[in-house]
Amino acid sequence: MNNKHYTSVVEVASDESFRAFVRGSDVEASRQWEQWLQENPEQREFIKEARSLVTSLRVNAVVASEATQQTLWQRIQATNVSRTQQSASIAGAAKSARPRIFTLLHLPKTIVNRQRYYWAAAASIAVLICSMIYVLYYKSSPSSVQYATTFGETQTLTLPDGSEVVLNANSELSYQWNPASDREVILKGEAFFKVSKQQFSGNPVKFHVQTADAMVEVLGTEFNVNTRRNRTMVVLNEGKIRLRSSQENVSPIELLPGEASEVRCHAEDGKRTLIKKRVKTELFSSWKDDKFLFEDTPLSEVAQTLKENYDLDIRFHDKGLAQLLFTGNVPTDNVNLLMTAIAESFQLQISRDGTTISINRLQER
After folding, report:
1. CA–CA distance from 99 to each of 6, 11, 23, 96 (Å)?
2. In this structure, is the dihedral angle defined by the CA atoms of residues 65, 160, 145 and 46, taken in order, positive or negative?
3. Which of 103, 296, 305, 307 is 20 to 30 Å apart from 134, CA to CA?
4. What is the CATH number of domain 290-361?
């Protein structure tokens, strides 16, 4: 069991396995929580209040609409996921589909004054929602969440809205948002996004990816963003997005699946250009599936990819070698295999000294 310490009642009540424990719907979750309570007696007061909160939500949801239930749950989840997302979940906790925190109860037929009961329940819900809004929006301001990967490391993230992000090596991603505001993340490096569609009060909530020189605007889609090599490049796999340059006089570009757009910053004058072209999307996002996929790729670009992801310094003793076009598919965790494939494809001599790799032509005997 992880020695996890909770900081609020809402945080405990938002835990999936805890709700199963309170409902008695999961034997394993109940066993895990009983054991956890024995190991963390100082947390019993939180547990007692959280149990009451979960029970109250179940009872007071008798006349709550589906929309009200979902909105309240999203507020609870969005506020607390930033605190717990980087901590390991309780070992062995149930990982089945998330049961709702609300259970609609059928009123007994023997109730005589049904209307009075409804009004009492509605009043209870109103008080509960007002209390939740106060706790979530005034007492619990969201904190900034940051992720970073090192060379040779990738990381799969789930954001508070359910969107999935695969963060490539040597990259950084951060975010801070409320349920009612646009979702925005800041990216440095490379990441693949699978964005879930969200609504608040009946209106779609946009998703933004902010880079140093561009803004990607999306409602729900899959795409790859790379901010390296002094530019932002976006490749769209699915859906529809709009790419805006940070330079105001550059018109935005809308992308369709199979298209890529690139914002380049020119070093000589600082101006930015924005272009669009058709591409094979798998060439740009294969890294998330743990493989390098190259197709007629200059060895200079292969070298740049290894530098960005593994901090390897590739040196060509003959400048012409950098322009050779390589096609291959190798696992990302086997750089030696990639080097062997390159050497055999072009009859080259490759040697490695620490993080430096030297490429030369084979010496004629």
Report:
1. 21, 16, 10, 8
2. positive
3. 103
4. 3.55.50.30
